[in-house]
């Protein structure tokens, strides 16, 4: 059956990637996107060979294009290490593309699970998704640390430019053989952007928002996060939240972890950098699989996003694919990168037909899995040691099954 293509009024930025994800990324486009959408794509090849060939300029250009067009959809990419330097004969050990893009967009990363009724969860009480936002700037990740070898005074000194009061604090007086020291920072601008992105995400989802800190111990440092979030909420979001029947609340990190464990989900959790690093993996495992986890970079302007899968390039499967072997790689998170990006495009453009298509494609993915058709990683969660080949589809078979389910839903209604 031929389908009338839905016109997408404005462009989207596509960032291609590496290895196994690049392979099925093309299949997703060919089988699930292009047959149904009339789409203007601004294409950037972020595969490692092209990043090397362009001296990583393509990554910067893709981020700048995202700021122009407001929607980017990204395939997983390799961040090179020493082994990759040799494998690809690279000119340089290029930085993480995600880090480069995040710095240019000044965005906050929000991760959220995709729930399927037949995929068991380690925490069965989580019946609704929990969306976790990680403030990906500063703190321990930009800290300066040192090993202290012997007695002496450790100081924290701030020297202002121009007029202003110098800060000179004695941190600790080492009297023994020494120890360790650490100095870290964050900025009002970055915390404000984090607050705006978090509140915008919660408002769009119509979910309550919680910020977690340890302000009882770090009264000034974490207290600044708490104060800025409260200021942003009072100034820009309180009336919108109340009208939508949702709320913002600050909680201590230990209280929040306990609450998360016993809650049924259905909220946005804004975390400082380290907390977000740790708790996002806790959530992914609790919900069942990184292969069922979306990742969206949200900018403080409220209209610019970059959507991707939360997992990597699936190198182990790619090695099998290179040798002509059969793979069963889960493409759901990458399909959801397309749906989340296109859904945002639909909202910006006021395009209800496109929004309906994205909802039907997501429903088709979930419906396919819930009908018993899935890739090996998900079948393993269900069947464990009793897993056999009949329990799962290969990479292309799964995408074909989703395409078949999508066509049925495009003729009928979109609900699961």
Automatic annotation (TrEMBL):
Mn(2+) binds at residues 254, 277. It catalyses: D-threo-isocitrate + NADP(+) = 2-oxoglutarate + CO2 + NADPH. The keyword Hydrolase does not apply. GO terms for molecular function: isocitrate dehydrogenase (NADP+) activity; magnesium ion binding; NAD binding. Its cofactor is Mg(2+); Mn(2+). Gene3D superfamilies: Isopropylmalate Dehydrogenase. Binds 1 Mg(2+) or Mn(2+) ion per subunit. The record marks 141, 214 as: Critical for catalysis. Pfam families: Iso_dh. NADP(+) binds at residues 77-79, 84, 262, 312-317, 330. Keywords: Glyoxylate bypass, Magnesium, Manganese, Metal-binding, NADP, Oxidoreductase, Tricarboxylic acid cycle. GO terms for biological process: glyoxylate cycle; isocitrate metabolic process; NADP+ metabolic process; tricarboxylic acid cycle. InterPro entries: IsoCit/isopropylmalate_DH_CS (IPR019818), Isocitrate_DH_NADP (IPR004790), IsoPropMal-DH-like_dom (IPR024084). Transmembrane segments: none annotated. GO terms for cellular component: mitochondrion. Its EC number is 1.1.1.42. D-threo-isocitrate binds at residues 79, 96-102, 111, 134. Residues 11-402 form the Isopropylmalate dehydrogenase-like domain. It comes from the Eukaryota. NCBIfam families: nadp_idh_euk (TIGR00127), PRK08299.1 (NF006156). May supply 2-oxoglutarate for amino acid biosynthesis and ammonia assimilation via the glutamine synthetase/glutamate synthase (GS/GOGAT) pathway. Belongs to the isocitrate and isopropylmalate dehydrogenases family. This is Isocitrate dehydrogenase [NADP].
């Amino acid at each position: 059956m031929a389908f009338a293509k839905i016109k997408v009024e404005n462009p989207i930025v596509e960032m291609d990637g590496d290895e196994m994800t690049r392979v099925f990324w093309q299949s997703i486009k060919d089988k699930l996107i292009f047959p149904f959408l009339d789409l203007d794509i601004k294409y950037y090849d972020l595969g490692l060979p092209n990043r090397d060939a362009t001296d990583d300029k393509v990554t910067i250009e893709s981020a700048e294009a995202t700021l122009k067009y407001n929607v980017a959809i990204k395939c997983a990419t390799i961040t090179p290490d020493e082994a990759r330097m040799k494998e690809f004969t690279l000119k340089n050990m290029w930085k993480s593309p995600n880090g480069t893009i995040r710095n240019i967009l000044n965005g906050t990363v929000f991760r959220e699970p995709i729930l399927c009724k037949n995929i068991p969860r380690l925490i069965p009480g989580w019946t609704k998704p929990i969306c976790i936002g990680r403030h990906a700037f500063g703190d321990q990740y930009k800290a300066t640390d040192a090993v202290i070898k012997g007695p002496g005074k450790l100081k924290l000194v701030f020297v202002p430019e121009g007029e202003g009061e110098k800060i000179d604090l004695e941190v600790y007086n080492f009297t023994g053989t020494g120890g360790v020291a650490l100095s870290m920072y964050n900025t009002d601008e970055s915390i404000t952007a984090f607050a705006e992105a978090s509140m915008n995400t919660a408002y769009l989802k119509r979910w309550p928002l919680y910020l977690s800190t340890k302000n009882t111990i770090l009264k000034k440092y974490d207290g600044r996060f708490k104060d800025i979030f409260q200021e942003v909420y009072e100034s820009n979001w309180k009336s919108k939240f109340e009208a939508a029947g949702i709320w913002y609340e600050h909680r201590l990190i230990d209280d929040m972890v306990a609450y998360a464990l016993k809650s049924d989900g259905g909220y946005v959790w804004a975390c400082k950098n380290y907390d977000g690093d740790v708790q996002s993996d806790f959530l992914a495992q609790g919900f069942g699989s990184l292969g069922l986890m979306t990742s969206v970079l949200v900018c403080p302007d409220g209209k610019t996003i970059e959507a991707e899968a939360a997992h990597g390039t699936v190198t182990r499967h790619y090695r099998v694919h290179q040798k002509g072997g059969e793979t069963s790689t889960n493409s759901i998170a990458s399909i959801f990168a397309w749906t989340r990006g296109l859904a945002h495009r639909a909202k910006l453009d006021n395009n209800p037909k496109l929004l309906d298509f994205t909802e039907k494609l997501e429903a088709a993915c979930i419906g396919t899995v819930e009908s018993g058709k899935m890739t090996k990683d998900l079948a393993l969660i269900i069947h464990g040691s009793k897993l056999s080949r009949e329990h799962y589809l290969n990479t292309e078979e799964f995408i074909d099954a989703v395409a078949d389910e999508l066509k049925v839903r495009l003729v009928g209604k979109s609900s699961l």
